[in-house]
Amino acid sequence: MSDKAILQVGDNSYEFPLIKGTENEIAINVKTLRTASQGIITIDPGFKNTGSCESAITFLDGEKGILRYRGYSIEELANKASFLEVAYALIFGDLPNKEQLDTFHSDIKSKSVVDEDVKKIIDAFPKNAHPMGILSSLTSALVAFNPSSVNVDSEEEMYRAIVKIMGKFPVLVAWAMRKIEGLPLNYGSNSLGYIENVMKMMFEKPNEEFEINPIIKSALDKLLILHADHEQNCSTSTVRVVGSSHAGLFASISAGISALWGPLHGGANQAVLEMLESIKADGGDTKKYMAKAKDKNDPFRLMGFGHRVYKNFDPRAKIIKEAADEVLNDLGINDPILDIARALEQEALSDPYFVERKLYPNVDFYSGIIYRAMGIPVEMFTVMFALGRLPGWIAQWKEMRLRKEPIGRPRQIYIGENYREFIPIGKR
Ligand code: ACO
Q1: CB 357 near ligand 1, within 6 Å
Q2: Would you call 156 exposed, middle or buried from its count of C-beta atoms within 10 A (0-12, 13-18, 19+)?
Q3: What is the mean pLDDT of residues 133-146?
Q4: 265 is a catalytic site residue
Q5: What residues does 145 pair with on adjacent strands?
Q6: Whose CA is nearest to atom 24 of ligand 1?
Q7: How far apart are CA 176 and CA 132, in angstroms?
Q8: Which H/E stretch holds residue 4?
Q9: Residue 27: φ, ψ to 5°
Q10: CA gap 408, 259 in Å, rounded
Q11: Could you tell which of 227, 234, 301 is best to mutate to test the pocket of ligand 1, judged by most ligand atoms within 8 Å of the CB?
């Protein structure tokens, strides 16, 4: 195959080099198009065909259902690694040895105290505030409490910023939940593992001895690993674009949280559970909702189905489905919502509308069922997604800054009015 692409526009032709990735993915590098053609650009709404960067963090093949972080398969990581090991691999490139992991964890713990004044900000939120709103505001507030921007040329400063956000973010996640639950804010304990501490901070009651449930711990570890990175999705692209202006790490992550909140992205896990609940309340007629999803005059979509990249199956959905069965079984929970989810999945998998459009359950179709079994309120589901995605956002921000990528600034094709004369207000 030739190593160049030729674009013919009218009588002119332009030549572009191809870029080949380590998994043989091919891109046409159109970097010189606008200058060479004196103004022609490409347009691709939603960036369905546009790569924004070269990245060594996550590989996914949507057709084959492959997902790997730093070369390690998601199946192996979910079954054999801890979330903190995966976070380390995403951020620093390789799985850590025992000593590296211990140092990373103790550095994170040493930075996990959040300024007491942040509690005043939490006090000011109404009790019914959405925890994603609380989390994104508190993460922005961290910028104010930690104003120095990171000197990315200093490995030490970069590392300090990373362990700081890894330490403080779970505290904010837990406090967002405790606020809506009306529970006193706490700090957990540095004697615990990362996930155990997250659980203590979230679930500990002021009048009860706290005990770690190993089933919940292992399911939470797995869920966070499955959400830890997913290459250039909406929130990650947001983090990279915001960071490309040299805004700091915390500010970039706060923007990513807002992007994640939408129901077409991370907000889908909350939307799935609400959808399953309303189908149950409406008598459990899944066929009726399948028909609504297919009706182009009805805005209803089957939440938790479809994915921009996975057009075969989402490998994370497979792992999560098994985990949901396991957790509900082990905890002895019989959730009728799971039966509705299974029925919808079965119908969709054999329905021509879904089959032709390659719409399969995505990672969020089953995650809400597990979160609910763990006793996490539904509004917190997307917050849990953010907790899992944090290492991915950090890794992508770090890579973008170290590769010295230019500021993200797309072009446009203007389709508005041509020049018109200004008419004074009295004559309009
Ligand atoms: N229910 C019904 N129809 C759907 C669904 C769905 N969930 N998803 C896509 N379709 C249909 C569209 O109507 C469209 O049909 P058409 O070709 O007849 O017009 C076709 O399938 C293609 O859909 P697009 O929206 O063009 O696909 P896109 O790649 O832009 O969107 C997305 C992907 C946003 C995930 C979409 O499938 C969706 O809205 N799903 C529901 C929300 C959801 O679960 N989001 C979570 C994604 S995973 C994550 O962010 C972690």
Answers
A1: yes
A2: exposed
A3: 90
A4: no
A5: none
A6: 308
A7: 8
A8: strand 4-9
A9: -130, 150
A10: 16
A11: 301
Q: Which atom of ligand 1 lies nearest, measured to the CA of 306?
A: 37
Judged by DSSP in three states, 112 sits in: coil
**Main-chain phi, psi angles of 395, to 5 degrees:** -60, -40
Calpha distance 75→81 (Å, rounded) = 10
386 CA to middle of ligand 1, Å?
Answer: 21
Ligand 1 atom closest to residue 314's alpha carbon, by position in its atom list = 48
* Alpha-carbon separation of residue 57 from 21, 68, 80, 349 (angstroms): 12, 9, 19, 32
- Which residues is 306 bridged to in the sheet? none
* Residue 266 scores a pLDDT above 80: yes
- Is any ligand 1 atom within 6 A of the Cβ of residue 394? no
pLDDT digits (tens, 9 = 90+) for 284-312: 999 999 999 999 999 999 999 998 888 88
Q: Which of 169, 48, 151 is nearest to 114 (CA)?
A: 169
Q: What is the pTM of this model?
A: 0.92
CA distances from 145 to 74, 83, 164, 224, 311 (A): 36, 27, 12, 27, 43
249, amino acid identity: L
Instruction: Identify any residues that bridge with 84 across adjacent strands, giving them in sequence order.
Output: none
- Residue 364 is a catalytic residue: yes
Q: Is the distance from the beta carbon of residue 311 to the nearest atom of ligand 1 less than 6 Å?
A: no
- What are the DSSP calls for 346-390, one per residue? HHHHT-HHHHHTT--B-THHHHHHHHHHTT--GGGHHHHHHHHHH
